[in-house]
Amino acid sequence: MKAIDSTRTIVIDDTTLRDGEQTAGVVFSLEEKKQIAKALDEIGVGELECGIPAMGREEQASVRALVDMGLNARLITWNRAVVSDIQASIHSGVKAVDISLSVSDIHIEHKLGKSRDWVKAQLHRALEFAKSHDLYVSIGGEDSSRADLDFLCELTEIGAEYGADRFRYCDTLGLMDPFTTYDHVDYLHRNGALPLEVHTHNDLGMATANAIAGIRAGADFVNTTVNGLGERAGNAALEEVVMAMKYACDRPLAIDTHRFVELSRLVGQASHRPVPEWKAVVGEKVFSHESGLHADGVLKYPKNYEGFDPSEVGLTRHMVLGKHSGGHGLQSRLQNLGVHLEADKVNFLLQQVRSISQKYKRSLADDELLNLVAHPTNISGVING
Ligand SMILES: CC(=O)SCCNC(=O)CCNC(=O)[C@H](O)C(C)(C)COP(=O)(O)OP(=O)(O)OC[C@H]1O[C@@H](n2cnc3c(N)ncnc32)[C@H](O)[C@@H]1OP(=O)(O)O
Ligand SMILES: O=C(O)CCC(=O)C(=O)O
C-alpha cells in the first residue's frame, strides 16, 4: 500500500448539490443551495458538483445563480454524454462538466441497450463538442467498478486524445471493498492515460474507506457529500474523508474543519435528514463519555479516549452519568456542581446512580443528581418526569 506523497494535491469535489440532492425525496431550495455552496467554498472545498442542467429551466437557473456567486470553488455539472446536456450546461454558465457514460457491460447492454463501440463513439462526440467550447472535462465512468479495467483504460486513452482532463472511477452500486478499490484505481493509475477521480457509494458501509483507498492508489480527486447524503445509502461523507485523511493517513487537507458541525446541521435540515447522534465525526454524541474507565481516562488526558479534540469539528465533549459510570467521573461531575463528598458517600451515590439508570434506561440530569445528593435514599422521588 502506497503512502500518500506529500507533493500531491488532493482535490475534494463535493457533490452534495448533485448526488446529495439525488437522494430519493430530497430537494434543496435555491436559497439552501446557495448557503451550502457558500459554506463549502468558505471552508476550502475545491470543487462543487452543483446540478444537472439537462433537467430543465429551473435547474439551469439555479446553476446560473451559483455561478453568479463568484465562488473560489470550481463549479462542475453532471451531463450524459449527449450534446444537448452539455449545451444546457454551457447555457447555465459553468466552465466544467462531468460527461457521464455507463462503462460496465451490464449497463451498456441492459441500460443503454448499446455496445462498447457505441460508448466509445458517443464519448468521442461529446468530448469534441465540450472541448470545442473550452470546457474542463471529467469523464464519468458510471459503474466503473463492474467494468472491464482494460476497457476503462481504452476510454482514458480516447479521453486524453480528445482533451479530457480526468476520469471518474465510480463505484456506482457501492459494492467494493477498500482492497479491491485500491487494486482497480492502482491499475488505472499505472495503465490509464488520465488523472483519476473516485466516486464511492455506501451500500456496504465502505464509501469513506473506499474513497481513501482510491486516494492512496493515486486518485487526485475525490467525491464527497456532507453527512454522506446521496443515492440509496449515500456517498463518502465530506467530514469523514477529511478527518480520515488527517488522522488515518497523516495527510491533512487544506479544509477548515471547525465548521463541519454547522455545515452538517445545515444540510441535515435542508435535506430533512436529521443527523444521527452517533454519526461519525459530526454526531452530537460522538464525544460523550459515560463508562467509568473512559471518563477517568478522558478527565486525566482527553487523548486517552479521543482521536481528536471535539472543537476541531465544532462539537463539545459530554460527560454522562449512567449505568456504566465510575467513581472518578461521578466525583468530577459533583465537583463541577460545587458538591464535595467523602469517598464512601460517592461510592454509595454511584450505586444509586446505577440503579436509577437501569430502572429508567437513561442517564441522569444534573438536577436529578443534586436531588439525589440531598435525598440519597429516595430514588423515585428524585427523578424528573
Ligand atoms: C449514477 C448517477 O447518479 S447518474 C445521474 C443520474 N441523475 C438523474 O437521473 C437525475 C436527473 N435526471 C433527469 O432529470 C432525467 O433523467 C434526464 C433529464 C437526464 C433525462 O430525462 P428523460 O429524457 O426523460 O429520460 P429518462 O431519464 O427517462 O431516460 C434516460 C435516457 O438516457 C439514456 N442514458 C442514460 N445514461 C446515459 C448516458 N450516460 N449517456 C447517454 N445516454 C444515457 C438512457 O439509456 C435513456 O435513453 P432511452 O430513452 O434511449 O432509453
Ligand atoms: O459521473 C458519473 O458517471 C456518475 C456518478 C454517480 O453518481 C455514480 O456513478 O454513482
From TrEMBL:
Which keywords are on file for this protein?
Nitrogen fixation, Transferase
This molecule's function is given as: This protein is a Fe-Mo-cofactor biosynthetic component.
**Keyword Transmembrane listed:** no
- Give the EC number(s) under which this enzyme is classified: 2.3.3.14
Q: Per the record, what are the reactions this protein catalyses?
A: acetyl-CoA + 2-oxoglutarate + H2O = (2R)-homocitrate + CoA + H(+)
Name the CDD domains for this protein: DRE_TIM_NifV
Q: Name one GO biological process term.
A: carboxylic acid metabolic process
In its UniProt record, a GO molecular function of this protein is: homocitrate synthase activity
- Tell me what this protein is called: Homocitrate synthase
Q: Which Pfam families match?
A: HCS_D2 (PF22617), HMGL-like (PF00682)
The record's similarity note reads: Belongs to the alpha-IPM synthase/homocitrate synthase family.
Query: Is Mitochondrion among the key words of this record?
Result: no
Q: Which residues form the Pyruvate carboxyltransferase domain?
A: 10-261
